[in-house]
Amino acid sequence: MESVHLSTRLPAALSRGAVHTAAGNPAGAPAPLPPPLPKPRPGPACRSVLLPSPAVVSQGDVQRTLIQVDFGDGIAVSYVNLSSMEDGIKHVYHNVGIFRVTVQVDNSLGSDSAVLYLHVTCPLEHVHLSLPFVTTKNKEVNATAVLWPSQVGTLTYVWWYGNNTEPLITLEGSISFKFTSEGMNTITVQVSAGNAILQDTKTIAVYEEFRSLRLSFSPNLDDYNPDIPEWRRDISRVIKKSLVEATGVPGQHMLVAVLPGLPTAAELFVLPHQDPTGESKRSAEDLEQISELLIHKLNQNSVHFELKPGVQVLVHAAHLTAAPLVDLTPTHSGSAMLMLLSVVFVGLAVFVIYKFKRKIPGINVYAQMQNEKEREMVSQVSHNDSRPPVPQTGLRRPGQLIDEKVESWLI
Fold it and tell me: Between 2.40.50, 1.20.1280, 2.60.40, 2.30.29, what CATH number should domain 4-121 receive?
């Protein structure tokens, strides 16, 4: 928001003497009259209002005077050894409200303070009514008044909607309501800020049911988008005309609304338009057929318009933009995610088997069998080691056994 410039003047003619206020004087001298309050100098879009007058510094030694100013918004400054105060003390307020400004002045002859109240306001410059373009019967609709600047003090909102003969007056910038019948309805909000009143009006379509489709455009349209309501309304009419020419669908069944902001996008609504006679009305199946026809033509790049000579703009369904910011096809990402999950699962399984192999039933039995075999081998070795040694004389070579057998046969 715009800021307000505050200029608070203190007298420059400070001579030796005492510090005076408008309520007292030294040594019985006549009290000096305070100078007139200076008119505040407003910024380009804000104004300020001064309330009760501050104290006045009438005398003192300027070279030894300390001036402390608290502006009431969390900022305080000190001034010392000031030779002149002709331009006053300037401060910038960034918020609206009532601020208590205090001034403390000290010099060799004394001290004094003064207080003033500053009312900072900012005029309202623009009102934008935000609400959906299409809604269904008996569904709650939220309407919001968007203000610029956003902080302008206390406001009064006057709402006109439907067939109401009396407005709804609120202090809040949003309301909710319902429509009980089909058709086009006008909503108006009036915002009162001081002596100024601004308003905005929007139209909302109410139907039993409808279909919607998000549209996108070739990137060259963004180069010519000033992002203002008038341009969006004009482009909406151009897009609707190109859709009618490409599909043959009557214009009464379509509503195009270009959305604010960049990149440029729009909302296409397929409406169940009713003939003036009231005999023919599109059903839900008809709306589906119209939606499929529109999507088919958009996918074939059959919808386009000429923005200016030599500049052609293509209209796409939002998920089929010429240069999508995000890849919405799930095939590659799904396969990659599946492969990653498989690798993680296998690694986790190997880790669990290695870490807890003795606690798994099958592996535990195998481990017990291995331990039993190891114990048997150790016991056999220890048993063999415990046998008494056989003397060398008791051992016979195979040749000796054969000789003894031969001798026994001969005998």
Answer: 2.60.40
The CATH number assigned to the domain with range 126-207 reads 2.60.40.10
The span from the CA of 331 to the CA of 334, in Å, is: 5
CB 263 within 8 A of CB 222: yes
Closest CA to 207 of 129, 291, 283, 317: 283
Nearest Cα neighbor of 264 from 228, 298, 300 is: 228
Coil, strand or helix at 317: strand
CA 239, CA 313: separation in Å to the nearest integer? 10
Residue 248 half-sphere exposure toward CB, CA atoms < 13 A = 3
d(CA 48, CA 29): 36
| Rounded-to-integer distance, Cα 112 and Cα 50, Å | 21
Identical fold between 4-121 and 126-207: yes
Please report, for residues 71, 98, 121, the alpha-carbon distance to residue 50 in angstroms, rounded to integers and kept in the order given. Answer: 13, 10, 11
* Tens digit of each residue's pLDDT, the chain (411 residues): 444 444 444 433 333 333 333 333 444 444 343 344 343 434 434 544 433 433 445 555 555 788 899 999 999 988 886 655 566 778 888 888 889 999 998 888 888 999 999 888 788 888 999 999 999 888 999 999 999 887 787 889 999 987 778 899 999 999 998 888 888 889 999 999 878 889 999 989 898 888 888 999 999 999 999 988 889 999 999 999 999 999 898 888 889 999 888 899 999 998 887 655 555 566 777 888 888 899 989 888 899 999 889 899 999 888 533 333 333 334 444 566 777 788 888 888 887 777 766 555 555 555 556 666 666 665 655 555 555 555 544 445 555 545 555 455 444
The domain limits of the chain are 4-121, 126-207, 211-320
Before 260, cis peptide (omega within 30)? no
Q: What is the dihedral angle through the alpha carbons of 376, 382, 386, 389, rounded to the nearest 10 degrees?
A: 100
H or E element, residue 188: strand 183-193
With CA atoms as reference, report the closest residue to 4 among 62, 45, 34: 45
Read off φ and ψ for residue 22, nearest 5 degrees: -70, -10
